[in-house]
Amino acid sequence: MKISSTKAGKLHFIRLNKDDDILLTLRKVVEEKKIKTGFIMNGLGSVQSYHYHVVADCNIPPAESFPKAEEPCDVIAVTGMVIDGRVHAHIILSDSEKAQGGHLEEGTRVLTFTVIVIMEAEELSFTDWDGVGIEM
């Protein structure tokens, strides 16, 4: 286990518009605002298409599945981290039948709008925190 602490940092409120790709927009914001370390606190809205990946077995590294579709869903949550300027985001989506989600991929495009909040954590470093099999 590894624990790091900091005071809350600058908050960035990002409103995405129809047809925006969520992951590409997050990468652009992180680059433009020069965010090296941060937390994707939450997100909400709707999408017209989605693309994400999930682990598909218990091997290390795990196999992955890449669900992708052109269909409307509500965005229930977007969470994650910015690690060394790299976006590591997860998304939860729902329709009238089910909830689904995983690691956000390019191709998840906004339907009406989506709002995402990123909090900077300049004092911290999360290098390798998302590495598979790395002892902390």
UniProtKB/TrEMBL annotation:
One of its GO terms (molecular function) is DNA binding. InterPro entries: PPC_dom. Keywords: DNA-binding. Pfam families: PCC (PF03479). Gene3D superfamilies: Hypothetical protein, similar to alpha- acetolactate decarboxylase, domain 2 (3.30.1330.80). It comes from the Bacteria. Residues 6-136 form the PPC domain. The keyword Heme does not apply. This is DNA-binding protein. It comes from Candidatus Thalassospirochaeta sargassi. The lineage of its organism: Bacteria, Pseudomonadati, Spirochaetota, Spirochaetia, Spirochaetales.
